[in-house]
Structures are given as C-alpha cells and as structure tokens.
C-alpha cells in the first residue's frame, strides 16, 4: 500500500505518524519521499514538526524529522513555531530540549506577539522548559502585543511557583517595564495577590511608578498584607531620600 500512496497521502500519513510518535512509520515514510515541510490548511497550516510537538517522549521522531526539515522556525497560521507549541501548549520538555539543539530562533513572536518563553509561562509553567529557553538566550524583556513581558505573565498568576519569576529576574528580566496599561510586574503582582511582590522588590522594582490611571502598586493591592509591604517600602524610600538630601545639604554648607 505504501508504494501506491500519492505524495499527498504520504505527507498526511507522515503528519499523523509524527503526532502519534510512530518512529518506524515516520522513518519509512521519509525514506519513501514524504515531505515533512508540507503545511496542512485543515491542521492550522502546521507541518509534521508542529504535530510531533504534541506527543511526550517523542524525541526519536523529532530526530528523524530534523534530518529532513528545511526550517525549524516554520510557523503555523497563528504564527507559532514548533518551539512555541512544545514549550507552551504541550509542555513537552524533552522535545524542547532536543529542538533547542537544532538552533531555533527563540525570538520569533506569534500573532499575539508572544515568544516561546511567553507561551511556556502561559502554558504549563514548567520551570525546566523556562530555564532551557533562558539558557538558549530567550529574551525575558520582549513584550507581547499587550505590552506584557514574561515577568508580567508570571505576576498575573496568583498561584505561580515563586521559582519562575525568580528565574526570569536572575536572567536579567527588568521588573520596571510597563505594559499597555502602564503597569509594571509589581502592579500586576500586587493586583492579583501574587507572592512574588517581595522578590520583585528585592530585584529593585520601583514602588513609585504609576500606571495609566495614576495608581501606584500599593493603591491596587489585592490584600492588606501586600498593601502594607508596599507602603512600608514607600516609607523607607522616602526616609532614604530625605536622609540623602540632608546629607547633601550638610556637605555643601
């Protein structure tokens, strides 16, 4: 039957075999000329590499495909690369790790302006994937089309593992970048009751920044505890500023 298949049938069979993790079938179809670069409109214009990202422990299939793939950064109709899908939608650690060895462009943004790092945080919040992406030089300060950086996204999730924003900050995420609402990650964390507030302050998040409504993070706090932490930081900052001003006056007098 394999020899009687049309090129289109072989390509469809390859896409299905890749999604199903069927290594031997993928290998056989590739040897018979199936095209892993073909996009299918009925599958959101995804290639076999995109569909393979769905299946966990699918590294052997990925390895076979990479020997024939022309462009690992091919995008689907939503602008997602296979890395976007594996990192976010499918939370596929081994696939991400293997794909990164093929040198994909981690800076590609989909139609929402999201990089694979955004997708990873929006998806499974798997810290290992996020670490892999950061070590592959994903930029933690790229904003999506709503102005949100990966740090904003972490701050927006109340139950997020504190390890995730901490990792972003250690890889030079800027806590003072504003989204389209004029809010920093500190605003977002305060508003959602996210426990990363203290961590953001440790990494020099500025408490005096106001959003488009003129609000500081302390003024939109979800809980009294967070509000008091931020107000305390504001008071300490005011006291430091006063002391520095007085010291400066003393030196010049």
UniProtKB/TrEMBL annotation:
InterPro entries: Ankyrin_rpt, Ankyrin_rpt-contain_sf. The keyword Repeat applies. It comes from the Eukaryota. GO terms for cellular component: nucleus. SUPFAM superfamilies: Ankyrin repeat. ANK repeats lie at residues 78-111, 112-145, 146-180, 181-201. Keywords: ANK repeat, Repeat. PROSITE patterns: ANK_REP_REGION (PS50297), ANK_REPEAT (PS50088). It holds the Pfam family Ank_2. GO terms for biological process: regulation of transcription by RNA polymerase II. The keyword Zinc does not apply. GO terms for molecular function: RNA polymerase II-specific DNA-binding transcription factor binding. Transmembrane segments: none annotated. This is Uncharacterized protein. It comes from Ciona intestinalis (Transparent sea squirt).
């Amino acid at each position: 039957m394999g020899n009687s298949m049309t090129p289109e049938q072989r390509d469809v069979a390859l896409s299905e075999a890749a999604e199903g993790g069927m290594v031997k079938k993928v290998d056989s179809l590739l040897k018979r000329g199936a095209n892993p670069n073909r996009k299918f409109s009925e599958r959101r214009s995804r290639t076999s590499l995109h569909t393979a990202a769905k299946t966990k422990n699918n590294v052997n299939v990925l390895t076979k495909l990479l020997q024939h793939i022309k462009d690992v950064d091919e995008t689907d109709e939503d602008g997602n690369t296979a890395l976007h899908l594996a990192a976010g939608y499918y939370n596929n650690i081994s696939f991400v790790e293997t794909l990164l060895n093929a040198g994909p462009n981690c800076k590609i943004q989909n139609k929402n302006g999201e990089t694979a790092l955004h997708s990873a945080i929006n998806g499974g919040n798997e810290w290992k994937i996020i670490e892999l992406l950061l070590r592959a030089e994903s930029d933690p300060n790229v904003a999506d089309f709503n102005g949100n950086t990966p740090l904003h996204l972490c701050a927006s999730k109340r139950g997020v593992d504190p390890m995730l924003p901490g990792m972003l900050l250690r890889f030079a995420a800027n806590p003072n970048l504003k989204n389209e609402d004029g809010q920093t990650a500190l605003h977002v964390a305060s508003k959602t009751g996210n426990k990363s507030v203290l961590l953001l302050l440790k990494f020099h998040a500025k408490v005096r920044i106001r959003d488009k409504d003129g609000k500081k993070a302390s003024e939109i706090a979800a809980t009294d505890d967070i509000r008091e932490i931020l107000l305390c930081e504001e008071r300490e900052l005011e006291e430091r500023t006063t002391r520095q001003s007085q010291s400066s006056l003393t030196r010049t007098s």
